[in-house]
Write a structure and sequence with these properties.
heterodimer, A: 823 residues, Ubiquitin-like (UB roll), Alpha-Beta Plaits, five-stranded mixed sheet, 32 strands, 23% helix, B: alpha/beta, Rossmann fold, 3 domains, four-stranded parallel sheet, 43% helix, binds flavin mononucleotide, binds iron/sulfur cluster, binds FE2/S2 (inorganic) cluster
Chain lengths: 823, 436
C-alpha cells in the first residue's frame, strides 16, 4: 500500500549540490532535493503540515502545506512534496497561499466532530493549533457531518475514532514504510474512507504506539493514557528508555507525581523517533503498589520495616564480618553507571573484594574486549546486514526498525538462524562458519568496492536463497557491513570475518545485550577480570589506589560462580538481580520490588527507579545518555548510588562523590573510555523538535553523549514547527511575576503547556502535610536562584511523598546526599 | 453503417464482417503496417514518423503521442512498459469500448507499433472491469495473435519480442488517471501518485512507462497504412487527423462518430450527425469533452469547431471526446448535481480538498435542488470551488468543480430561481414545488 515515493536521501550517496531559493523574501541555500517545507524550516518559517512527517516519505495528500510558487502552471503547490529549485520564489504568507490554506483547513473541518472537550489530543492537536493560526475562524458548513461509531479498539493499546481522522495516512505509512508490517490500511474510498486494520484482523504490532504518537489529531489514542490527563497538566522530562539496551530516548510526562505517559524524544542516532510498545507502555511498574517503600531488616527470622540508619547499620555490620574474598556483589542491568561505579568502588576499593560481576559476561574473550565498532546509525548506510543467531525483533525492537531502515535504503539482509526478520532476508545461510568459508573462497577479483544495486522486483532472484555464494558476495560489495549478534550467542569467527572484510566504524559488530545498562556496568568495572573501561586490573591498580585509597586487583568470582549452586561466598550485595541458587550467610538486596531473592535477604534496601533520579546509562552501541529526574523517589526509596554511598559511610568511609554529578565527573577522570565531561555537557537542545539536527556532540571515540535537555517542556514531535515569534512571555518571567499574562486569544497551546506545567507544583490543594515539603525551582532556564522564582510546593495528590526530606530540584544532580532525617 | 459525413480512418474497417477475427483482419492487410515497420524502420524513425503525423492523445489531455514516447530514457538499464488505458469511465465516453469490442486487432497492432518504437517488451492493457464484452473480444484476439506468432518472441521473424497482459480493473474512475492506473496495476490501492517522477522515467514497478489511451493506439495502424503525410493533411494545423466523438444526450441519434478535427462545429454535429434535437426542442448546453469539461451553450458556442484549440478558446476542453447535449428542458442545477455526485462517488479520498469538497458541493446542490437553498449558498459554492480548484492532488478534484462553476457561469438565473421559487426554472420540474 506504499503510496508514496521514497525520499531522495533514502537512496544514499550521490553528490549533493546546493540550491538557492527565496521564501517570503528571504534567500536560503539548501541541498538539492530538499523539500520546500524543510527549506522554510531552516529559515524559521512555519508551514503547517498534517500528512508530512520527516521520517516518512512525502505523500502530498492533506494539502494544508500549500504555498504559492511564482512562475508555475499550477502555482499553489504542496510544500511538503515539492523539491526546491534554483531561483524558486515561494510565498507562504501572501494572499493566494493564505486563502488556499484557509480553504483546506475549512474543508478538513467539515466532517470533523470537534469534540475537543472530550478529546485526549486537545491542547496538543495540530488541527486545533493550525485552525487557530491559519484557519479563517468560522465554519460555513451547515450540512450533516459524516458519522462513525465513536471509539473503536483496534489493537491491544490503540483506540480509533474515525470521525476525528483527517486521513493524513501517517499511521498507515508508518506501518507500511517503517515497521514494514501489514498494520493499518485505508478502507473504502472518498468521504467514506476510514482507517483500520485489515478486515478480520486487529492491529497488534509491537510498534503500534508510534501511530498514536504521530497521529496529528485525536483519531488514534492509547488505552493507557486515554482520559488520564490534559497535555498542559504535564511536566515533561527528558529520559531514556529502560526497556532494553537500545536506549531509545523518551520524554517522561508526569502529572501530579505520577507518570502519565512516555513519548518518543527523537534521537536520530539511536531511535530515529520511534519507541516500541514495551518501552512506551512499560512505565506502569513505577507506581506499582508492590514497590518497596521502606528498608527491611530480618529480625527473628522475619523481614520487618526499619529506618534507613538501622538498615544500613545492619548491612554494614554483616558485610564487615566476613573476609574480603568471601564477600561479593552481583548487579543486574537496571543499575545506573553511577551506581555501578560506586559498587565497584565498594567492592574493590573499600571491602577489598574482586568478586563482582554484572548479569552476563560475554563481552570479552581471552582477556580482551570485543571490538564493537558498529553504531546503530551505521545500519542506515550499511550495504549488508548480517543477523547472526539473535532476534532483534524480540530483544531489541528499536534495532529491528533500524535494520528495516537499512533495508529500505540499500542494505541486503543475511540471516543466520530464524528470527523476526527472517521474512525480510535476502539470503538465509545456515551458519556463520559456512558464510565465512564461502567468503574466503570467493575469487580475488570479486573485490569489494563494486556497487551492485540491490535486487529489485524486476530482477531475477527472489527474496530468499540458500545460496551461500550469493550471500558471501554481498559481503564483498563494500566494507559497510554490520553484524548484529547477541551476547548469548557464540561469536567465534565473527571478529575474524569482520576483520577480513575490513569493517570500520560506524559499521562492524553490533552486540545486542538484554538489560538496559548492561554495557555501562561492564564499562564501570562491574566485572571480575577487568578494571573499569576494560583496563587490565594490574595496570589500573595504581590510579585507582590513589583515587580510592585501595584497589583489589585480583581476579574474582564471576556471575555463574556467584549465582550458581556452589556459590563460595559468605556475604553478598545483590543489586536488581533475581538469580541466586545458593544464599550466602549474609545477603543485602537493593531492589525496586520484593523479589524471591529479596525475601531471603537479611537486609532489603528500597531503590528508586530510573525516573526518580538523575543518572546515566550506556546503550549497546556505547552512547552514554542521561536520564533526568521526573519524580521524587517513591516512599523512602533512594537511588542505588545513594544507598551504596551511605553503606560506605557506615563502613567507615566518607566518599567525596556525594552527588551523581560528582560520580560522573570521577568516572570521566579515571575511566579511559569516558570523557572528562559533566552532566552540563549533555546537550540541552536534543529534546527540541525533530527538525533540528543535534549539534556538537562531545566525547571520545567510545563515549558519545547524546541529547539530554534541561527541564524544558519539549515540543511534541507530532507538532508543527517550533514557534518562532513567541506569543507569550517566557516561563521564567511569568514565575518572576513581572509580566502581565498574554492576550488570551493569542495563547499558543504549547506555550500554555509550558506555563502551566511549571505553575502546577505551586497548587496549594490538598492542604500542606507537615514534613512533606519539596523544593521546586524553575531549573536552569530560570534567571538564577532568586527568591522570586522559588516556590515551596506542597506534595499530596496521587502520590505519597518521601518522608526523608530528599530534595528534588532541577539541579538535583548538584545536590549532595542529604542527611537521613528520621521521621 | 457509417454516417455519410464521417471521416473514417480509425473506424475504416469497423463495419467489415468478422473484422474482430484475426483471419479477416489479416486478409484485409491488418498487421502488415507493423510488420513492415519492424523490417524497414528503426524504432527512432517510428517515433519521428508518429511525431510527424501530429497524433495527439485521445485520453483527455491531448498530449502529442510521438513526443510522449520520446521522453522515455533508453539508458536506465531497466525494462520499459506500455500501459494501455482502457478504463474508459468518463461519463458519456464510450468509444474505447467500441474499439475493443469490434476492432481488437487494430488495437493490438497499435500496441505493437508503440512497443517497437519505444523498445518495450511488455504491454499491459488495463480494461475497465465492467467492459466484459470488450474483455472477451480482446482476450480472444490476444490468444489468436499469440498463436499466429504476432506476440511473444521473434515477431515477424525479427529479433523483436513483446508480450501482452490483459488486466481487468475493479471499478474506479480514478484508475483511469495514469498514475492511479499504475498503482492499481501493481496491486496497490488505486491512488494517484506524486509527480515527479513522471511515468516516462519511473512508472510501473519504478520502470520507464508509456501510458496511452486505446483510441490513440488504435489510430496508429491506419496512420501507417495510409502514410503519415496523408494523415497529417487531415484536420487543422495543431489538431491533426480525425477523432472519435461520443455524442449523447437529447439528440435523436446518439452514437459514436469519427470526425475530422476542426471541420465540424457543434451545430453541425447535432444537426447532421445527431439527427437534430429530440422532440424538436432547443439545445441549451453542451458538455464538449466528458464530465470534466466545462459546459458550453448552444447560443454562444454553436459555431465552435471540434478541435483541441477551438474548444480551449471557448474556455472548455476537448477531453475524451464525449459530447453530452442538454435540451432546453434540462434543469442546470439538477444536471450539475448529477455530475458532482459522480465525482463525489468517484473521489479516491487521498487529498482533502477533493474528498471533502465533493461531499460539500453535493450536499449544497442537493439542498438547492430540493428547494432548501439560500442565496448565500451561491457564493459558498463559488468559494468551495475556489478552495478545490488547483489545490487537489490530481485533476479529478479540479474536474469536480467544473459542472458547478460552468453551469453557474451560464445559468446562474436557474440557481437563483431554484432558491427563490423552490422549483426548477425549466422543464418538468418547473412550477411544481420541489420536494420540501
Ligand atoms: C480522473 C481521470 C480519469 C481518467 N480516465 C481516463 C480513462 O478512462 N481513459 C483514458 O484513456 N485516459 C484517462 N485519463 C487520462 C490519463 O490520465 C492519461 O492522460 C491518458 O491515458 C494518456 O493517454 P493519451 O496520451 O493516449 O491520451 C484520466 C485522467 C484523469 C485525471
Ligand atoms: S482531534 Fe483535535 S480538533 Fe479534533 S476533537 Fe480532538 S482536539 Fe479537537
Ligand atoms: S488515524 Fe490519525 S494518523 Fe491515521 S490517517 Fe487518521 S489522522 Fe492520520
Ligand atoms: S483529487 Fe480527488 S481523486 Fe484526485 S487524489 Fe485527490 S481525492 Fe483522489
Ligand atoms: S500535503 Fe503537505 S503536509 Fe499534507
Amino acid at each position: 500500500m506504499l503510496q508514496s515515493r521514497p525520499r531522495r536521501q533514502e537512496n544514499g550517496g550521490g553528490l549533493m549540490s546546493d540550491v538557492t531559493l527565496t521564501i517570503d523574501g528571504q534567500p536560503v541555500t539548501v541541498a538539492k532535493g530538499t523539500l520546500i517545507v524543510e527549506a522554510a524550516r531552516k529559515l524559521g518559517i512555519e508551514i503547517p503540515v498534517y500528512c508530512y512527517h520527516p521520517k516518512l516519505a512525502p505523500v502530498g495528500a492533506c494539502r494544508v502545506c500549500v504555498v504559492d510558487v511564482e512562475n508555475q502552471r499550477r502555482p499553489i503547490m504542496p510544500a511538503c512534496a515539492t523539491e526546491v529549485m534554483e531561483g524558486m520564489v515561494v510565498h507562504t504568507r501572501n494572499a493566494a497561499a493564505t486563502r488556499a490554506r484557509e480553504g483546506v483547513i475549512e474543508l478538513l473541518l467539515i466532517n470533523h466532530p470537534l469534540d475537543c472537550p472530550v478529546c485526549d489530543r486537545a491542547g496538543e492537536c495540530d488541527l486545533q493549533d493550525f485552525t487557530l493560526r491559519y484557519g479563517h475562524g468560522q465554519s460555513r458548513f451547515t450540512e450533516t457531518k459524516r458519522h462513525f461509531e465513536k471509539s473503536k479498539q483496534i489493537g491491544k493499546e490503540v483506540i480509533l475514532d474515525r470521525e476525528r481522522c483527517i486521513m493524513c495516512m501517517r499511521c498507515v505509512r508508518f506501518c507500511d514504510e517503517v515497521a514494514m508490517e501489514e498494520g493499518l490500511t485505508i478502507i473504502e474510498r472518498g468521504t467514506k474512507s476510514e482507517i483500520g486494520p485489515f478486515p478480520g484482523r486487529s492491529f497488534d504490532s509491537q510498534f503500534s504506539g508510534n501511530t498514536v504518537e504521530i497521529c496529528p489529531v485525536g483519531a488514534l489514542t492509547s488505552r493507557s493514557y486515554r482520559f488520564k490527563s490534559r497535555p498542559w497538566e504535564l511536566q515533561n522530562y527528558a529520559s531514556v528508555c529502560n526497556g532494553c539496551a537500545t536506549g531509545c530516548n523518551l520524554t517522561v510526562d508526569v502529572r501530579y507525581y505520577e507518570v502519565a505517559r512516555f513519548r518518543s524524544r527523537c534521537n536520530d542516532a539511536i531511535d530515529d523517533g520511534w519507541l516500541c510498545d514495551r518501552g512506551r507502555y512499560g512505565y506502569k511498574f513505577i507506581s506499582s503498589p508492590e514497590r518497596l517503600k521502606k528498608p527491611l531488616v530480618r529480625k527473628d527470622g522475619q523481614l520487618v520495616e526499619a529506618t534507613w540508619a538501622e538498615a544500613l547499620e545492619v548491612a554494614a555490620a554483616g558485610l564487615k564480618k566476613f573476609p574480603a574474598d568471601k564477600v561479593g556483589a552481583v548487579a543486574g542491568p537496571r543499575l545506573s553507571n553511577e551506581g555501578g561505579w560506586l559498587l565497584t568502588r565498594l567492592m574493590r576499593g573499600l571491602l577489598g573484594s574482586p568478586n563482582l560481576d554484572h548479569r552476563r559476561g560475554l563481552a570479552f574473550r581471552e582477556g580482551e574486549p570485543l571490538k564493537l565498532t558498529a553504531k546503530i546509525e551505521g545500519l542506515d548506510t550499511a550495504t549488508a546486514i548480517v543477523v547472526v543467531g539473535c532476534d532483534p525483533t524480540r530483544t531489541n525492537p528499536g534495532i529491528d526498525l533500524r535494520i528495516k531502515k537499512g533495508l529500505r535504503r540499500q542494505a541486503e539482509l543475511i540471516c543466520i538462524g530464524e528470527n523476526g526478520l527472517s521474512g525480510y532476508a535476502d539470503y538465509r545461510v545456515g551458519s556463520l562458519a559456512e558464510l565465512s568459508e564461502a567468503y574466503a573462497n570467493l575469487p580475488e577479483e570479486e573485490k569489494k568496492g563494486l556497487n551492485y544495486p540491490r535486487p529489485r522486483p524486476w530482477e531475477a532472484g527472489g527474496s530468499t536463497s540458500t545460496d551461500l555464494e550469493k550471500a558471501a558476495k554481498v559481503l564483498k560489495k563494500s566494507n559497510r557491513v554490520v553484524f548484529v549478534f547477541s551476547e548469548d550467542h557464540p561469536v567465534e569467527g565473527l571478529e575474524a570475518l569482520a576483520e577480513q572484510i575490513g569493517v570500520e566504524a560506524p559499521h562492524g559488530l553490533l552486540m545486542l545485550v538484554a538489560g538496559a545498562n548492561s554495557v555501562g556496568l561492564r564499562e564501570m568495572g562491574v566485572l571480575p577480570v577487568f578494571a573499569p573501561g576494560w583496563q587490565k586490573l594490574a595496570e589500573a591498580k595504581e590510579a585507582y589506589s590513589t583515587a580510592w585509597g585501595a584497589f583489589a586487583s585480583g581476579e574474582g568470582a564471576d556471575y555463574a560462580a556467584m549465582t550458581g549452586s556452589s556459590n563460595p561466598l559468605q556475604a553478598m550485595v545483590l543489586v536488581a538481580e533475581d538469580k541466586l541458587e545458593k544464599k550466602p550467610e549474609f545477603l543485602v538486596v537493593l531492589d525496586l520490588f520484593s523479589s524471591a531473592i529479596a525475601k531471603q535477604a537479611d537486609v532489603v534496601l528500597p531503590a528508586s527507579s530510573f525516573v526518580e533520579q538523575v543518572m546515566t546509562m550506556t546503550n549497546l552501541d556505547g552512547t552514554v545518555q542521561l536520564c533526568r529526574q521526573a519524580l521524587p523517589p517513591l516512599g523512602e526509596s533512594l537511588p542505588d548510588w545513594q544507598i551504596l554511598y551511605r553503606l560506605a559511610e557506615k563502613l567507615g568511609q566518607k566518599w567525596d562523590t556525594d552527588t551523581a554529578a560528582k560520580i560522573f565527573a570521577q568516572i570521566g577522570s579515571l575511566n579511559p573510555l569516558y570523557p572528562a565531561a559533566s552532566y552540563n555537557d549533555f546537550q540541552t537542545e536534543a529534546a527540541v523538535h525533530w527538525s533540528y539536527p543535534q549539534q556538537g556532540k562531545i566525547g571520545t571515540p567510545r563515549a558519545d553523549l547524546s541529547g539530554i535537555p534541561v527541564h524544558r517542556p519539549d515540543a511534541a514531535p507530532w507538532m508543527g514547527a517550533p514557534d518562532t515569534g513567541s506569543k507569550v512571555e517566557r516561563v521564567s518571567r511569568l514565575l518572576a511575576g513581572d509580566q502581565p499574562p498574554a492576550v488570551p486569544g493569542q495563547l499558543d497551546p504549547r506555550q500554555m503547556a509550558t506555563r502551566l506545567s511549571l505553575v502546577l507544583p505551586v497548587v496549594q490543594d490538598p492542604p500542606p502535610v507537615p514534613g512533606s515539603r519539596i523544593t521546586a525551582s524553575a531549573g536552569p532556564q530560570a534567571p538564577g536562584p532568586s527568591p522570586a522564582n522559588r516556590y515551596h510546593a506542597i506534595g499530596g495528590g496521587a502520590r505519597e511523598l518521601p518522608l526523608p526530606a530528599v530534595q528534588i530540584k532541577q539541579t538535583e544532580a548538584e545536590q549532595p546526599v542529604q542527611e537521613v532525617t528520621e521521621a | 453503417m457509417p454516417h455519410p459525413q464521417e471521416k473514417r480512418i480509425l473506424f475504416g474497417w469497423r463495419d467489415i464482417k468478422d473484422i474482430g477475427s484475426l483471419k479477416v483482419y489479416r486478409e484485409k492487410g491488418g498487421y502488415d503496417a507493423w510488420l513492415k515497420l519492424l523490417k524497414e524502420k528503426q524504432p527512432a524513425e517510428v517515433i519521428e514518423l508518429t511525431k510527424a503525423s501530429g497524433l495527439r492523445g485521445r485520453g483527455g489531455a491531448g498530449f502529442p503521442t510521438g513526443m510522449k514516447w520520446s521522453f522515455v530514457p533508453n539508458n536506465l538499464g531497466k525494462p520499459k512498459y506500455l500501459c494501455v488505458n482502457c478504463d474508459e469511465s468518463e461519463p458519456g465516453t464510450c468509444k474505447d469500448r467500441e474499439i475493443v469490442e469490434h476492432i481488437p486487432h487494430q488495437l493490438l497492432e497499435g500496441i505493437g507499433i508503440a512497443c517497437y518504437a519505444v523498445g518495450i517488451q511488455k504491454a499491459f492493457i488495463y480494461i475497465r472491469g465492467e467492459m466484459y464484452e470488450g474483455y472477451l473480444s480482446l482476450k480472444k484476439a490476444i490468444e489468436e495473435a499469440y498463436a499466429a506468432g504476432l506476440f511473444g518472441k521473434k515477431i515477424g521473424g525479427s529479433d523483436f519480442e513483446c508480450d501482452i497482459v490483459l488486466h481487468r480493473g475493479a471499478g474506479a474512475y480514478i484508475c483511469g488517471e495514469e498514475s492511479a492506473l499504475l498503482s492499481s496495476l501493481e496491486g496497490e490501492r488505486g491512488f494517484p501518485r506524486l509527480k515527479p517522477p513522471f511515468p516516462a522515467v519511473s512508472g510501473l514497478y519504478a520502470c520507464p512507462t508509456v501510458i496511452n489511451n486505446v483510441e490513440t493506439l488504435a489510430t496508429l495502424p491506419p496512420i501507417f497504412r495510409m502514410g503519415v503525410e496523408e494523415y497529417a493533411k487531415l484536420g487543422t494545423d495543431k489538431s491533426k487527423g480525425t477523432r472519435m466523438v461520443s455524442l449523447s444526450g437529447h439528440v435523436n441519434n446518439p452514437s459514436n462518430f469519427e470526425i475530422e478535427l476542426g471541420k465540424v462545429n457543434f451545430k453541425q454535429l447535432i444537426e447532421d450527425f445527431g439527427g437534430g434535437m429530440r422532440h424538436g426542442k432547443k439545445c441549451k448546453a453542451i458538455i464538449p469533452g466528458g464530465a470534466s469539461a466545462p459546459w458550453l451553450t448552444m447560443e454562444q458556442h454553436g459555431e465552435v469547431t471540434l478541435d483541441f484549440e477551438a474548444i480551449a478558446a471557448a474556455r472548455s476542453m476537448a477531453g475524451s471526446g464525449a459530447i453530452v447535449v442538454m435540451d432546453e428542458d434540462t434543469c442546470a442545477v439538477g444536471a450539475a448535481l448529477n455530475l458532482v455526485e459522480f465525482f463525489h462517488e468517484e473521489s479516491c479520498g487521498k487529498c482533502s480538498p477533493c474528498r471533502e469538497g465533493t461531499q460539500w458541493l453535493t450536499q449544497i446542490l442537493h439542498r438547492i435542488e430540493h428547494g432548501q437553498g439560500k442565496m448565500e449558498d451561491l457564493k459558498l459554492l463559488d468559494e468551495i470551488c475556489e478552495s478545490m480548484l488547483g489545490k487537489t492532488f490530481c485533476p479529478l478534484g479540479d474536474s469536480a468543480t467544473v459542472p458547478v462553476s460552468s453551469s453557474m457561469r451560464y445559468f446562474r438565473d436557474e440557481y437563483e430561481h431554484h432558491i427563490k421559487e423552490k422549483c426548477c426554472k425549466v422543464g418538468p420540474g418547473a412550477k411544481k414545488t420541489a420536494g420540501v
